[in-house]
Amino acid sequence: MRSNEQSDAESSSSPAPAPALAPLHTRAWFAAEALVNKGHPGFVPFRAWASARQVAPDLRKLSGQSTQIYEYIWRAWLVFLESRSPRLDWDMAQPDDVRLYLLTVDPSANSRKGFGASSITRARYRKILSNVYSHSVDLGRQDGSGRPETDPTQAVDVSDELPKREEPQSFLLPRTVWRRLEERAMAISGGASASRESAMIGLIMFEGLTVSELTDLEPIALGVTKAAEACTWGITSPTLLHLDGKGGGHRERTIQLSDHSKKALSWWFIERSKLPGLSTGKVFIPLRQRTPLSAKSAYLIVTDFLASAGLAGEHACLRHSGPNLLRNGCIQRWIEDQMPFAEIARRLGMKSTRALQRIVQECDTATMLRFNAEATQTGPVAIQSAKAMRGTS
After folding, report:
1. Residue 257: helix, strand or coil by DSSP?
2. Is 326 exposed, middle or buried (0-12, 13-18, 19+ CB in 10 A)?
3. What gap in Å lies between CA 63 and CA 50, rounded to an integer?
4. What is the pTM of this model?
5. Is 349 helix (H, G, I), strand (E, B) or coil?
6. Among residues 252, 247, 267, 126, which one has the least CA distance to residue 201?
7. Is the four-CA dihedral 382, 358, 151, 27 of positive or negative sign?
8. To the nearest whole percent, how much of the chain has pLDDT over 70?
9. Confidence band, pLDDT 50/70/90 cuts, at residue 311
10. I want to staple 277 with a disulfide (CB 3.0 to 4.6 A). Which of 54, 67, 290, 302 is the partner?
């Protein structure tokens, strides 16, 4: 089996695009960019990692193009740290700094219609940072400096949509944790902000939507035929969700909404009918401006919900807090409820059940046998448990 470090961006058919060095075109950002030149001390750990990678006997050597791209990504990270207030040295960065960097980094001019880098791109950038930090932590232990103490990327999860060959080990939420998250979701109350949060959380937790699907959601998908009319929003009680499958690689499908999502969306529609910006063309909008809700804002709504549940101290998996945690939990519940894997794939807009393998690998033997039995009829190859694949009992 290939090592984790080898499964980085270069294993993709094409290297990760270099990010534009301007997540926030502020005066502080441009001042910081001028400071991060070739002599900047933050480049020392990157060069140490790159040199070690070139002589490692069990890893593929980096090409010149890959090295340039990875250095560009690392430089963007250094500029980001320099632009913080107060500025941060590379070895003092925290997980929250990594999260913000990955949310603001912009890999292209159009940036997915303004929604930032895709989760695949963010996962690849995180992998580059992780490679450098992991190597530096090992060196710090060897030379006794102890710097940095930890890899700040390890508490950041953007891995759900990585290509199969780049995926790290998965994790499953204990049922007790999921129940407490459900209770928290159902207890959300208040005005427009709370109703919007409840509807968004419900669509991820109970219907398995992604953040991009949430931010792209059109009113017609939920039965609102005249989006500009307040009375239409106020009286609509959605029961079905139709997703057209445009963008994001998902297939067209229609979903029967759960009871929670029906109630939460009806509540949000009533509150939304009181807000300006009815004709923005999107279901979820900011509360104080007439523009679509960004993926970054949606991500932060979910992470705030997870933080408010107060479970991170008890359960390590919740330190990897993000929308994918809730979406994976939704898939896990469907599997435990004996829903056919083909139906799970259909609900998620997947082209086949193959995409479910990463989660199934972490389930019990009975689940894997059921998956493999379906696979003989639907196509994907039979799988082993994750423990067996790692050579453990």
Report:
1. coil
2. buried
3. 11
4. 0.55
5. coil
6. 267
7. positive
8. 69
9. low
10. 290
